[in-house]
Amino acid sequence: MVQNTEIRSSNEPFRVLARKYRPSDFTTLIGQEPMVRTLSNAIDSGRLAHSFILTGVRGVGKTTTARIIARALNCAGTDGSGGPSKDPCGVCEHCVAIAEDRHMDVIEMDAASRTGVDDIRDLIDGVLYRPVSARYKIYIVDEVHMLSRNAFNALLKTLEEPPEHVKFIFATTEIRRVPVTVLSRCQRFDLRRVNFEELSKYFAEIAKLERATISRGALDLVTRAADGSVRDGLSLLDQAIARVGTGVEINEDTVREMLGVAERVHVFDLFEALINGEIAEALEHLGSMYQSGADPALIIQDLAELTHWLTRLKAIPEVADSAPRTDHDLSRGRLVSSKLQMAVLTRTWQMLLKGLAEMRAAYSSIQAAEMVLIRIAYAADLPSPAEAVASLDKGTLIETTDRPTGPTRVHPSETTAEVAEASQILNPSITSGPTGLALKPEHVVEIEPTSVSENTLPKTFEEMVALFSTNGEPLLHAYLVNNVHIVKYEIGKISLRVSEEGPRDLAKHISRCLNDWTGKAWFIEASQEEGEPTLQEKKEVSAAASYEAAIAHPLVQKTLETFPGAVVVGVKDSGNEIPLSEACQKVSSEDKTSLRNPQSDNNNDSVSID
Fold it and tell me: What is the pLDDT of residues 48-83, one digit of tens each?
């Protein structure tokens, strides 16, 4: 309900809409029904607290409510003999004086400018005196959270046991900054944001009273920009009326230009271009909106708002009408949300939020916005975490290619580095191990598995391990070499122990691969027995034995004696079947033994035997 204020005459001073239509009683206060009901019942029953604290976002009516409470408690009625009333008459001397901010017993204090303990001491001194003419002396302290700690402490005792003729009403936008000791002494009311429908209806009534014509789309834009704040919305409406002048309709384009926001259809087009990975088209949309006067930060905010709405639309289709949209937006939103996965929407939301934070620190908002859009477009083709893991399970890693700048699409399976990274986050046991072995999918191409016939089934554990290398499973091959202790090996049945560094589900992956390659069912048993050393350990033992045998050879010993300080740096197996002595003689005759004199090479002598 809006007060039917007459249009001002040419001689009447102008008042902004937020002051002109300020509620004067509980019936004209919109959007705060729970608080109004509680206060009305308290006034009717005489159960009045000695202190109230009102909290909420800016512009929802905290100070206005405080003044209404002051009028309700001090109203004397039309005949001057009435008591406190939930419906103040508005004509008695107290109601009129409070409405005009000149009542001596209603003291308003701005805590933002009077924060010190001395200001509170002045207030406390005045509490001792009875009201001059009213029933109650009422102190309204706005932005009470701005008081200093000492000021709060000085107020505590008076706030706990004030005289019967005193009432305190505090208002704040940051309730968390008010000490708990103060909150416990007050009756608290949380003023809510006014919902979209109620606020839109209220602004339409105000526009009608001001004889201004405003379209439905323009009204929705003003209401959405108000974000639940009555005062903010009235200020925007006031600005829109002044922008078009008398007798001209306020249309959607006017409000968009005033607010610096983009058209809804353009935001939809930009969002779809991003989701489709069409970078060039997305940047073209952004540039067009920027040239039309839209703020880049507001464009990103609009994208975030659209992403949130589409996410709600996909999660709970019944709430489609919770945030008003045109029929075209609603049908288009349902179509877009049905095609997108929830993972894509949530990822886009997170990237937009991160982008907004980056834009605040960037020297150029439009450049920062472009970078945000490019990141989202490049991420559009990334598979979901579930798809990433499934891709690794199937062993179908495809070579990564760069995305073209045009509208050509890239299939999600063409991104491999991202797949490996996502799967490593979800299941580290599959993608990495403490031995430092990790799948590096750069330029990894899908390998067609080699079929194995009955006659060529791997007869030994070593042959089975080699099969994984042949069929393009480097990660599993590395685990088999480094982390598997074979206990018993038979064709179709393997008993093994996986070291603590290996993945727990390695047996499952081994069985899956062998079943696919051989066409035979393989049973892989996880054993607790010690088992044989790993293939890598066997290789190291064999290399150590070869080294010791080479060092013990008489020719090598003679060489080391001839060149003091020389060392054997390596032993290589040439694959020849000749004895070591013959090999050494051959090396000597062909001058393939590399010897360095310690006096001529800084004592870094070495002998390499091939």
Answer: 889 999 999 888 889 999 999 999 998 888 887 788
Cβ atoms 560, 607 nearer than 8 A: yes
Between CA 278 and CA 270 the distance in angstroms is 10
Predicted confidence at residue 246, as pLDDT, reads 73
Distance CA 233, CA 210 (A): 15
**What is the domain class of 264-379 according to CATH?**
mainly alpha
> Strand, coil or helix: what is 138?
strand
Concatenate the DSSP letters of all residues of 493-512 into one string.
EEEEEE-TTS-TTHHHHHHH
Note whether 398 and 445 are within 8 A (CB). yes
CATH fold, domain 454-532, is: GMP Synthetase; Chain A, domain 3 (3.30.300)
Token pair belonging to 220: 């929705």
Q: What is the residue whose two structure tokens read 């924060």? A: 115
Domain boundaries, the chain: 32-190, 264-379, 388-431, 454-532, 537-609
The Cα–Cα gap between 213 and 251 comes to 9
First to last CA, the chain: 100
Tens digits of residue pLDDT in 422-455: 444 434 444 444 333 344 444 444 445 555 666 6
Q: How far is CA 79 from CA 69, 76, 90, 134, in A?
A: 20, 7, 12, 15
- Which of 405-414 are b and which e, b meaning 16 or more Cβ less than 10 Å from the residue's Cβ? eeeeebebee
> In whole angstroms, what is the distance from residue 229 CA to residue 250 CA?
21
Mean pLDDT score across all residues of the chain: 78
* Displacement of CA 607 from its chain's centroid (Å): 61
- CATH architecture observed for domain 32-190: 3-Layer(aba) Sandwich (3.40)
Long-range CB pairs of 430-436 (<8 Å, 24+ gap) are 430/389, 430/392, 430/475, 430/503, 430/505, 430/509, 431/392, 431/475, 433/478, 433/479, 433/482, 433/483, 433/501, 433/502, 433/503, 434/501, 435/478, 435/482, 435/483, 435/501
Q: Is the model's pTM score more than 0.70?
A: no
Distance CA 274, CA 289 (A): 15
Tell me: pLDDT of 189 over 80: yes
